[in-house]
Amino acid sequence: MFRKAMVFGMLAVKHVNERHDGIVSEALQLPEGFNMTFDIVDTLMTPSVAARGTDTMITEGADVIIGPLFAHEAGPVSLIAGIRSTPVVAYGPTAPRLSDKSVYPFFNRVCFDSSAVARAMVAEAKQHGWRTISLLYSEDMWVWQGGPDSGSQESK
Q: Which of 95, 33, 93, 94 is nearest to 66 (CA)?
């Protein structure tokens, strides 16, 4: 997923700067002299590396941070970016606590938080009369901190 996002990001910037409308249809309408740059930091899926990378990117002039993929990185990244008044647009983290604008005012996501997914699953199960649901997931402790204990959860 990351490699695809990286390639598409690089291609989008190239198309904007060359005024090619193959990927970014608005590229031809951009004002003369409008150019973009694209920087990449490998977070190594480590919150401290992600936070340091965020601080460095902002210091070097980043207007926005895209990513990270995981919630355990998004919290620290969003705190650093928030202190520096820089928006974060994340495409993967689903931890509901990242929606708290009093803590993460510059955090934005382009995916649903996990509580919205859970509500949708319960609604679908009720509609179809399903009683047993199997779920595939990857453990990310940020999702569960302060949330439900693992195991069966009944809807109310």
A: 93
- Look at residues 40, 29, 54, 38 and name the one whose alpha carbon lies nearest to residue 107: 54
Alpha-carbon distances of 74 from 44, 90, 94, rounded to whole Å: 13, 8, 10
Euclidean distance between CA atoms 107 and 74, whole angstroms: 8
Secondary structure class of 7 (helix, strand, coil):
helix
Alpha-carbon distance of 20 to 96, in angstroms, equals: 38
Specify the pairing of strand 107-109 against strand 65-66. Answer: unpaired
Residues 14 and 7: their CA atoms lie apart, in Å, by 11
Tokens of 128: 């179809």
Tens digits of per-residue pLDDT, 57-113? 999 999 999 989 889 999 999 999 999 999 999 988 889 999 999 999 999 998 877
Q: Is 127 helix (H, G, I), strand (E, B) or coil?
A: helix
Tens-digit pLDDT profile for residues 27-61: 899 999 999 888 888 888 899 999 999 999 999 99
Phi and psi (nearest 5°) for 33?
90, -10
Do the Cβ atoms of 75 and 98 come closer than 8 Å? yes
Q: How far is Cα 137 from Cα 117, in angstroms, rounded to an integer?
A: 12
